Structure formats: structure tokens, C-alpha cells
Queue: 3 jobs
Job 1
Amino acid sequence: MNGTRRIVAALAGAAAAAAVSVTGAGAAPSAGSTAFVPVTPGPVATTHAQAAGYAEDHPGAAPAGSNDFGCVPSPDHPRPVVLAHGTDSNSYSDWAAVAPLLADAGWCVFALDYGKADGADEYGTGDIRVSAAQLGGFVERVRADTGADTVDLVGYSQGATVARYYVNRLGGSAVVDRWVGVASPSYGGTFYGLGAAAAAAPGATDAVEDFFSVALAQQLQGSDLLTELNTPVDTVPGVRYTTIGSRVDEVIQPSTNVALRGPGAVNLMIQDLCPPDQTGHFNMVYDPFSLTVIRHALDPERYAPGECVPVRLGTGIPELIIESNS
């Protein structure tokens, strides 16, 4: 099961984890993971299901407009944008709409497939600390090839945490100007309370790791990884932080867990900016209004959020489920 589609199934996984911890589980996950730089461009996608399906049929595809290592940053957009995808996914599946939007606006855009755990089928499954180091190495390549002193980072879901770990804990603050977290599990998700219940059961966190991934377990509310990252403060000086969340996020509850609490953080909610837009976690990187908010977060003086139009609750989820079973 590819990318974001599998995380839909993981909503139920936390509930099963408590039972799994009693009955036993599979082998412990390996600590190793790999990264990959995709260079063969795929088409622009307009839905998450469309992108996920293309990614499954074309492994290693890059989002349109990304990973041109000959790109020269313009005076209007002097900092390249580096994109970090979500859990059990890849750069094409999550960024096939965002990357071309930013490239068309004049940014040099780059995207990495990171954190493919040993034995896993998908990226975004390995230890987030290791993934953050992989992202850091990629940032250094982008800086070397483009000649840029600094970059901006945009992370979606787990990718926001990977990017923030790099910034806050691995020295990335020296070369990152803006960090933008889209549907960021800044303080973790409870999976409608099921994750919190499972985490309270002996061995349940290990069960989540065994049956899903280390990365998924690290995104549960109260995880050791998030406690480490957010203590004593969740931001560091010199970096401009923006979170973009949804009050109807299907993964992160309460939705306030998206927000950062440290000095200088700007926390945006789609429904505060556009009340009839009920886009959630899985649709956010393909919702036209949300895409313009991402662009706004990267350059708020140049770009305002776009036209507000109604979006139905649950948009995109049925299509992802159908795609996962096709």
C-alpha cells in the first residue's frame, strides 16, 4: 500500500496496538534507513490520490519543477525551497502540486525521498533523527549546487518534524531562514484518542513500531522524540517558523497540537483564513486555497492567500481509499 494511502489505515492501527502488545508482534524494526534524490519529473497532479497512484506506477518520480540542480536563485526568490514529504510516502506523492506551483512562481525547488527503513516498502518510515540528518545532507548539496547561503524548508506531516529536528537539533538553523510546517504533528497526534490509549498500554509503542514504523510511533502525542524536540522550547533563534493546520485534521487531534509555542512562531489555521474550506490532513497539500497559504508563508509580503472557496469535509479521503484498493 503506497504512501499517504497507508496512513489512512494507520488511523485504526493505534487501536489495534493495545491488543497487539498482549498477543505479540513481529520483529523489531531496523535502525537503518536510506534516502534517494529523484530526478525524473512526473506530471503535475491535482489530487493526492492521483499523485499516489502515479508514484506507485512510477517509482522514483520527482515532482514537476523540482530537483533542477542547475537552477539559479532569482533576486525575488534568493533562497531555494527544500520540501520534506510525510510518513510512508515520497516526494512525488506529497508534492506533485506544491512543487510546480512554487517553481512557476520563480523559486528553485528541491525534494528528497528520505527515511526508507531497512525492509520497508516506502520512505518516511525510518527513525526521524536519521531522516533529519539525511535532509541536512541534501540541504548542503542544494546550497553547494545553487550557491545559496540559506534555504527555506517546507515539511508536510512527518516532514515538518524531520525538518524541524534538523533545524533545532542538527545545526540547520545556521542555514535555514524559514521553516513552514503543513499539518505538522508538532506535539503529536492522538489518532482520535486511540493512540493515547494504546501508548498507555505496556508495550503498545513497540507494537506500533513493529506493525507500522518507527516514524509513526515517534509522532504519537507524548513520544520521546517529540518531548526531546520540544524541550525546553520548540523553536530556536534566527529561524522564522510558520505552521499551517486544519481544525478538522484526520490525524492530529487536538488540532492545536499543530501549533508551535516558542518565540516568534506564526500559527495559521485554514478555517480561520477561509471558514468554508473544510480540508483536512490528507487533502491539504492538494487543496488550492491551502497551496496559496503555503506560498504566502514563504513570502508573506509578496503573496496573499488566494480565493476562498468551500471544500467539503473529508475531501480526498474516499479517492485515496479507492486508489489503495485498485
Job 2
Amino acid sequence: MNKQKNRLTQPWKLMMVAALAALALSACGNETNSVTKPSASPEVSSNVEKAEVTENEASAVRMFKDWSGHDVELPNDPKRIIFHGETTGDLLALGIMPVGIMKASISGAVFEERMAVVEDIGFPFNVEKAIALDSDLIIVANNDEEQYQKLSKVAPTVTFDTFATLPERMATLGELLGKEKEAQEWLEKYKQQETEMWKSLRASGISDEETASVITFYPGNRLFIMLAAGLPQLLYSEGGFKMTEPIKNSMSEGVGFVEISMEKLPEFVGDRIFVLTPESEEAKGDTKALIDSALWKGLPAVKNGYVYEMPINKASSDATSREWLVGELPKLMAKSQ
């Protein structure tokens, strides 16, 4: 499958760049040599120090094969990380503040203010800024091999799948950044929060057989059904809403979203409709036009009052936004109960 498929860009935000995927992370052998110190003679001490230096140097790096097949020598404890992708909040969940990011991807995000001082690497990736930041690791969600070769000359570079599931991404980043324990603990805590959220929603009267759909507009009067990124990942998680048949069929094709005509909307939408409100004034106008239309007012979900609006940039896929969504979804849906 072409990983560039279903990529949408906007001046204010790159929304869901195509997947570049899971890193198969395996540590290099760290075989050590035992040194016996029979005396404190200068010569023996010198040999011990040399052995220790050699051992430290050997353990300071490890090899990884990234999704694109590159074998990359990485530092064991990277400190100055550039993350160029759409799930920047994954790093925050692990307690990591990168030195450079794609700021267009966090515009309007729930954690935007926390990253105000982080350098903007831009979109496309600004290589000169990366050089100035003196990074020791670059994580990039892009399968452009020409760009990769340029970046790999600046610092060790790996590709990362921002379309992967939340558990997959966190596990990968945990291994990549030496935060395996933190990643596992975060996932366990989050899973408990998500389970409790669904129990609460079921107790409020929402049936486990109900379907849901997520829609949004992009400039040019382009209507999209969101499938496998951001809010839908939560809605369709274990214990969550069912998919309508057209959504299920589209998901089986492995795409993150699908563009449809207005006439197709009744076929795709479910018992509950979530509208991601865009930032573009043009797209906002198109959204309003739909909501004012007879077609929209005739939908069962609309008649039942089961329509929910949420800013598109808050409903992101990253770990930090997902935590926010788990807390926000019950409050949002309580308005229709």
C-alpha cells in the first residue's frame, strides 16, 4: 500500500501524514570483559581504565532497523530529540520534551502552550534548523528517501508510524527512547481510564450496539469520514461504539479517512455523529451549510439530538490528547442524555 495515500495538508496544520511505521527495536550485544586488578600499580590501573572506556563506548549506542529498513546506530540515552510528526503528545506522555517539532501539527492542541518554547522545524522539514539544534536523534513521519538521506547526515534518524495504534506507538517509543517502563505504566493507567469511561457511558444509557461516525470538512467543500486517526480510534476501541457497514468496509482497506459526496452521508453516519469543527473559515462555512441543509436535518442522529461537536485539533491521536478525550467524551455526550 502506498503510505502516502490519504494525506491531507492544510496551511495551519498537517493532519495525519501517511504511516511510516513500527520500529523493530533490538539492542546490540553488550558483552563485557572482566578485568582482575591484582595490584594498584599504575600500569594495571591504566589498563582497567582503558577497558572501562571501551566498554562504555560500546554500550553508548545500539542498532535499530526502522520501518523503512534502515539500520540506524542510535545513542542509548538521547537528550536532544527532534520529532517531526503528528503525534508529538506521545513524547509528553513519556515525560520527554523535544527540542524541535512540527508546530503546525500542534496548533490548537490541548498541550500547545506547554510546547511554546520548542523550536519549530516547519513543514517541509527545515534541515538548517535541525543542524542548528545539534540534535542527537531525529524521529520523522515521512517515507521520502531523499529527505531521509539528508536528515541522516545531520543526526541519527528513524522513521515512525503515526498511524499505528496508541499501544503500538507508545511501546515503540518506549524502546526507542529507553522509556520502556514509563511507556508500560502509562498504557496500563490509560487502559484503566478508558475502561472506566466506557462503563460510565454504558451506565448512562448508551447501548453497546449503537454505531458512531466522525465527519469533518476540509477547504474546497471536501467532506470526510474519519476512520483510523484521532477521535475514531477512541470511539471504536474495545467496549466502544460499533461501525456502520460502509465505515467497516473502508477500514478494511487500511485507510485513515475517506472522502465522500454529500449524498453518501446518510449511508455512512451512525446512531451518533461527531463533527470535528475545522479551523479554516472556508471549511467552517461548508460545515454550517451542511448543518442547515434538509439532508442533515433528516438524519436520525440529528433528529434524536445525538450530534456532538469538537475542535478538530483537540481530537488528535497522540497520547496526551487521548487522555484529554477520555475525560472530555462523557461530558460532551452528557449534553444529549
Job 3
Amino acid sequence: MPEDTTLRARHWVAPGPGEPSTWDFVEEAVPDPQEGEITVRVRAAGVNPADAKHIAVPREGVEFPVPIGYEISGEIVAIGQNTRIGSGEARVGDEIVAFRVRGGYAETVTIPAEKAFIKPTTLSHAEAANLLLAGTTAAEMLWVTGVAPGETVLLHGASGAVGVSVLQQAALRGVRVIGTASAARADVVREFGGLPVEYGPGLGDRVRDLADGMVAAALDAVGTDEAVDVSLDLVRDRRRIVTIAAFGRAEDEGIIAIAGSMPESARFRDEVRPDLIALAQSGDLVVPVAKTFPLAEAPAALEFLAGGHPGGKLALIP
């Protein structure tokens, strides 16, 4: 009998709605790439709250089993016929970063080629695998609120992954950012160009003292009532307040809510990917990584992330 040369790889799947502890780590055949697809040997997979959140409970339109993971960094091992990646021509062996993929928690995965871009040489695989979900979210927050050079904005959750990307992108635009954080994380806010302010009672007054004038916009990356209430108190125009977490409050108060599952958000985030990759390549956008885990320990990584304040991004290494 001829030798079976089918490529097989392990990956994480959710057999049904539930926590990461209910997921399965299975080995399956990796489909050959067809036209418009590439196969990638994953060197690192980004770990994000959305990875678990989106399949924790039943949702309309979600069919199980669901492969886990939205962003990866790795090496092309096969290319479909007549296929270009998102950044143009590519060859087997090229290192790429890909975002808005399906099933990134894997050793090897076949993905739509248009979702892949040549990896910035300035970033490690663990860093590159965490560039785009947080980065595109941050870019959209600045975009929808119309933040302009010379303005002062309030950023809730400034020391988190999205917050750190907001700080860097805002600084490049000449925007002054007052960022909420715990006292223990204030140095992170300063490191990336923000003015730290501790959250908690009296937050609004502390922000006013630092702002020395009007707060033009508020960006909420935490979703607490305090974040929304202080934003409403300090920003005159509710269309210049955005949240990525407080969706119920957004509907009640008439502020903007964004999410990758929303068509307009998805369109913007896809379009801005090349810009963020270029910023990373030039050294103007960095991705702090706190810790890596073996791919087989994905549930442990998500448990660590859920504990809050991991100190940077997390990555899974096959």
C-alpha cells in the first residue's frame, strides 16, 4: 500500500457551549489549500478573551464543534493555485501573521489567504500573534470617536492589551491620553505616553484636574458602570464615547458600541490591518507579551487571562 502522506495536526475545538475546560485537543487531517487558501505551520497563537467568550454560551448561528483561535503567526507550508495573500505575493517558507481566522489554536491550519500578511521582522512570533485583534480594536476606537491631534481623551483600561495599543496609536497622532489603571500599573501607562489616573471613587474629579480643560472623547475598554458614568459626565457629545464591553449601557445611553462581530467593525478592522503591520515594522507599535504557554495548555492560559491583569499579552506555542 502507498504511504499515507496526509498532513495531520492537533488543534483545540469546542464540542459545545462551555468553558475552556470542556474543550477537546484533537488530531485531525489538515485540508490541502485550495485556490485562495494557504496552509500555515503555527509558531504562535494569540490568546484573547473573545476566544472563550464567543462560545461560552449558545448563540444563534454558531454550529458546534467550533475550532478555537482568531489570530496566529507562523510559516507558510503550502499555497493554493493562483493564490496571493493579503499583502501580495508569497512563497512557501514565508513568515506571516493572520487575523480573523478560524481555528488558530493549532499546530498547522489551512486559512483564507487574504487574511495573511508578511510578518513584521521587528516582532517575535508570540508578539506578532497578538498584534492585530487588540490593534484593530484600538484603531477603531480612535476612528469612531474622531480623535484629532491636540485633543485630550480619556481611556478606561489603559494598561490592558487594547489600552496599550490605543496609547501608542494616539501618541503617533499627537493626541494626549489620560488613562485609568490601578496604582500598580501606572508605570505601564506612562511608558506608552499616557497620563495615568487611578480608577475608583473620585475618578471624575481626578481626570478633570489632569485634563486642565475639556475631555474631547472617552474610550472604554473595561465596561464598568464607573467607566461609562465618568465618560458621560466629562464628554459633551455622546457620539464621542465608545465602549467595547458595556453594550447594555451603550444602548441605554446612546453611546457607541463596537465589536468584531458587527459588520461595520469587521470591515474597518480588515481594512486597517496593513497600516498596523507597517507601524509594527517601523518600530512604532510594539506588543508586550507577559507569558507563553504550550499549545496543549490552552485552558490554563485562558484561566490565567481571566484572572485579570496578566501584565501583557499571552501566546500559545505549538
